[in-house]
Amino acid sequence: MDKSNRHAFETRAIHAAQEPDPQTGAVVTPIVQASTFVQDGIGENRGYIYARAGNPTRDTVSKCIADLEGAEAGFVFPTGLSAAATILELLDAGAHVVAHGDLYGGIHRLLTQVRIRSAGFNVTFVDFSDTDAVRTATTKQTAMLWYETPSNPTLRIVDIAAISQIGREVGALTVCDNTFCSPYLQNPLALGADIVMHSATKFLCGHSDMMAGVACVASHVPAEITERLGFLQNSVGAVLSPVDSAQLLRSVKTLPVRMDRHSTNARAVAEHFAENRDRFGLSDVRYPGLPDHPGHEIAARQMRDFGAIVTICVNGGEERANEVLKRTSLFQFAVSLGGVESLIQHPASLTHKTIPEAERAAAGISGGMIRLSVGIEHVNDLIADLEEAFR
Ligand SMILES: Cc1ncc(COP(=O)(O)O)c(C=O)c1O
After folding, report:
1. Whose CA is nearest to atom 10 of ligand 1?
2. Which of 47, 70, 249, 371 has the smallest CB count inside 10 Å?
């Protein structure tokens, strides 16, 4: 799609990088399953050689998502974690990484239980919602700053522009995990971030029926880094299959409609919790859209809406949390998030279990904490389900 004449996000979600198939006129991008492509002569091919290095269906979804993130280039991976692992391959052995204290547990595990051993990384964890703390933790030797906003599951808000500025000052790459927002709600590259990653398993896919990951690189990043990420993806072999690429491309077409409904429903659920805090026995209700959220102003500045995730803390710790989790029926007790169906889960025993208890406590992840991914069902049914569970 012609970047000089950009359409609105909703239009690009459906059309970016997509033309009717020149051979058949098919309106949707064909799934090209071939693992290898015929050569016309030595050094002569039609753009493709071998499917790990390049596949037309994968290329289309990569370009479409890159367009939505306002990126120079995009790469799609079989999972969010494989996208993260490949981005980390940009760093040399022994690199200093400053990472957000409350990262998704799987990325925390990748950094602390894999890359410290296999690549000798030196990782400093710090609360990225405290910009001064990030500045203090970062030195001229720091190679990468890695954060999520809103963070998982505590919904801390990171000032993307301020962190990007710190990265520029010390010459470190800044990586924003944009999973909780999707490109529809937040575009970190436009605020100066260098690389955006997604667990596309979540909102980009949106139906809890596939896994995928995304990495997008900003146009202000030197071309060698973008090229190197493509080289690394091919070198480690972490590529999304053609069928999954087509399914992801289809899902992205409805992203704006889903995200609007997710956000409206989540706001109503968060407000209901906040209004009934005492009756429900809650010690905390977190949603970036609530005016008393500590990051509300920054979130309002950098997000288009406030997203689907609501986190609460119940009085009575893990025991009471377990009762609530067992009593919802529309909110199904399962990990993951971002699907059309509502999910409810317990971070301390599931998504963040791999983080040592003391670090979990320091990040504010308590036994009474419950995370909800609010789906796109009718909001009255969702609220009735919660009323029943808390009765
Ligand atoms: C914020 C965030 N980043 C990354 C991941 C990892 O993605 P995946 O499960 O697709 O490997 C997750 C998974 O829950 C996540 O929530």
Report:
1. 80
2. 47
Tell me how crowded residue 139 is: count the other CB atoms within 10 A of its CB: 11
* Pocket probe mutation, ligand 1, options 77, 86, 104, max atoms within 8 Å of Cβ: 104
Q: What percent of the chain shows pLDDT beyond 70?
A: 99
Quote the pLDDT of residue 351. 83
Q: Does the CB atom of residue 273 touch ligand 1 within 6 A? A: no
Say whether pLDDT at 142 is over 90.
yes
Show which residues are catalytic: 52, 104, 177, 202
Distance from residue 36's CA to the centre of ligand 1 (Å): 31
Q: Which atom of ligand 1 is nearest to the CA of 211?
A: 10
Given a cut of 80, is residue 4 above it in pLDDT? no
Is pTM beyond 0.70 here? yes
Burial class (CB in 10 A: 0-12, 13-18, 19+), 356: exposed
Domains and CATH numbers, the chain: 7-253 (3.40.640.10), 255-390 (3.90.1150.10)
Residues 6+ positions from 89 with CB-CB distance below 8 Å: 232, 236
Residue nearest to atom 9 of ligand 1 (CA): 80
Residues recorded for the chain: 391
Q: What is the pLDDT of residues 176-212, one digit of tens each?
A: 999 999 999 999 999 999 999 999 999 999 999 999 9
Q: Which residue's alpha carbon is at the smallest distance from atom 13 of ligand 1?
A: 199
State whether the beta carbon of 151 lies less than 6 angstroms from ligand 1. Answer: no
- Residue with tokens 């909102």, as numbered in its chain: 203
3-state DSSP of 195-223: EEEEECCCCCCCCCCCCCEEEEECCCCCH
